[in-house]
């Protein structure tokens, strides 16, 4: 594995691209939206500068990352030489399938195609390609450069070789991996969505303020971030899509809190819109 392409230059995509670049890979970051891609480039180079100045990365890592990071709107140019492609677009199955069908035609037969989904089925995605044995989910966490875990989710047809190679990539990224047999929500999203949804229900019921609910979980249960803060960071529209998928596949206990639906309808999407459960 030398060349990695990341598709989607949003919060997760640019974080994955940064982490791959400082770990010595040649990285193409692709997005069809030039404005989003330009913002990602600016954010990545700012993070590189700050990380180098604070001593988190060496001068070699800093210089090599700048030299081996490329930003490209044309998917064919970005992915044609990739050994591994990591898709990090919106949690919409039809969008992911469309991208994987294109990648299947563009990439060499040996290229591994991974999705950064937090809930969706790599089996379903892989079935739309000619290489289901080389399709897998790599679920990174936000912020990617700080979070230590990658969930590696094996689809029904994913080969042992594909799993082994992806775990090796995880090691090179200085991440820990856990192997998951595909089931809706995997490990972390199932737990996280339940906790977050209950926190939203408590806020809606007037049990406590957002600040006190988050404080209780941080200090009482030793969570590094409160569930409402975390939902704001992830994006309330993203959380709602995850909840709707889990509700559809796993049943009633994942029914999205009405307050979450109301906030998304109002455009209160969390940190990215300036207002969610908190003001930014």
TrEMBL record:
Specify one Pfam family. 3HCDH
Q: Where is this site: Important for catalytic activity?
A: 139
One of its GO biological process terms is: fatty acid beta-oxidation
Which parts form a coiled-coil structure per UniProt?
none
* Positions annotated to bind NAD(+): 8-13, 31, 91, 96, 118, 142, 272
Question: What domain of life is recorded for the organism?
Answer: Bacteria
User: What would you give as a GO molecular function for this chain, any one?
Assistant: NAD+ binding
User: What family is reported?
Assistant: Belongs to the 3-hydroxyacyl-CoA dehydrogenase family.
**Under which name does UniProt file this protein?**
3-hydroxybutyryl-CoA dehydrogenase
**Naturally occurring in which organism (per UniProt):** Bacillus oleivorans
């Amino acid at each position: 594995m030398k060349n990695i392409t990341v598709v989607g230059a949003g919060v997760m995509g640019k974080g994955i691209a940064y982490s791959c670049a400082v770990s010595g890979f040649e990285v193409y970051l692709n997005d069809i939206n030039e404005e989003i891609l330009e913002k990602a480039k600016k954010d990545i180079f700012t993070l590189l500068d700050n990380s180098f100045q604070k001593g988190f990365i060496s001068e070699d890592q800093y210089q090599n990352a700048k030299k081996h990071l490329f930003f490209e709107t044309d998917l064919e140019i970005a992915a044609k030489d990739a050994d591994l492609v990591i898709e990090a677009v919106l949690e919409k199955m039809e969008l992911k399938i469309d991208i994987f069908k294109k990648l299947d035609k563009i990439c060499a037969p040996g290229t591994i195609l991974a999705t950064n989904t937090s809930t969706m089925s790599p089996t379903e995605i892989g079935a739309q390609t000619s290489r289901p044995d080389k399709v897998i989910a790599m679920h990174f966490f936000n912020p990617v450069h700080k979070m230590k875990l990658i969930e590696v989710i094996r689809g029904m047809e994913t080969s042992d070789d594909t799993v082994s190679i992806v775990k090796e990539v995880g090691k090179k990224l200085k991440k820990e991996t856990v192997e998951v047999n595909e089931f809706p929500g995997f490990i972390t999203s199932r737990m996280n969505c339940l906790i977050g949804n209950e926190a939203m229900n408590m806020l809606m019921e007037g049990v406590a303020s957002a600040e006190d609910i988050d404080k209780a979980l941080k200090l009482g249960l030793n969570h590094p971030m409160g569930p409402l803060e975390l939902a704001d960071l992830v994006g309330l529209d993203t959380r709602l899509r995850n909840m709707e998928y889990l509700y559809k596949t796993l049943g009633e206990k994942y029914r999205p809190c009405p307050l979450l639906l109301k906030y998304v309808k109002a455009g209160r999407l969390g940190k990215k819109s300036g207002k969610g459960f908190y003001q930014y």
